[in-house]
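REQUEST
  id: r-88c1
  op: predict_structure
  target: ROK family protein
  payload:
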Amino acid sequence: MRHAIAIDLGGSHASIGVIRENVLLTARDISVEAMDGLQPLLPRLRACVDSLLCEQGLTSADCIGTVLSLPSLVDFRSMRIASVNNKYPDATTVDLQEWSREAFGLPLVLENDARAALLGEVTAGAAQGLRDVVMLTLGTGVGCAVLVDGIPFRTMQPQGGNLGGHIPVRLDGRQCVCGASGCLESEASGWALPLVAKEMPGFSRSALAHEPGLDFATLFAWSDAGDIVASELVRHCIRAWSVGTVGLIHAYGPQQVVFGGGVLARANDVLPAIRSYVQTHAWTPAGPVEIVAAQLGNRAPLYAAIALIEEAERMRER
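RESPONSE
  id: r-88c1
  status: 200
  body:
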């Protein structure tokens, strides 16, 4: 039975686990400060891994590799971090391969967190048995990953398949951090939400105007309470997610679109509306595309460890 060390870095927490084949034996979350950088975090990651391995009666010698996923663009061919955006600003300069060899005596596989989450859902979650899948994660940003004929979609540009959050959903939309305008992320993500809210008619009279930190949980709560602006903003976000989903379906032709992220706490409000829009507007001559919620939560990337190690091995053999 093959074991692997799996680490997924987020903006405020890291998930660390030990995988045996497709089974997550044990896992732990630790708090992190992504803006402090990656280098200061490495000793804590090592200590946590050592503790989890000991808990299972294992050592790193029982593992075939380390997998690290993070919110960055990753060049899978060269196993390097190609670009970062705010989180872990030093990541492109840290020699993570050397760290894994020194800490565990193991090779390291790097991956974008959204792609790892998709592979986790394919391995042990909502997309098991499927070969053509798109995943969108709705939270602070909008993450995206694509599986085509059972293979993670990658291109020579490291953003290939990862920028579904930056397809245009509004021609006269807001300027996005990526440089384009009207992106899905700039219209309906956690970081954009306060900015979009301020542009809504009647905002100054809305309860939202008095919220010091507007997030999706607060937005949905005020919508439930009958705040007109909040309800209109919820509709705006759902329409943006729906339009973006149709665009991704037309681009990649998936069997299924999996939605993850914090917004899915309101899956019963969000997903039926997206399904209805897709049914009306998507051209899918081979049959309807499933719109489903992810099943594995923030542990999904950990389940991808063995699959990613195998893919990296196949790539080295070519």
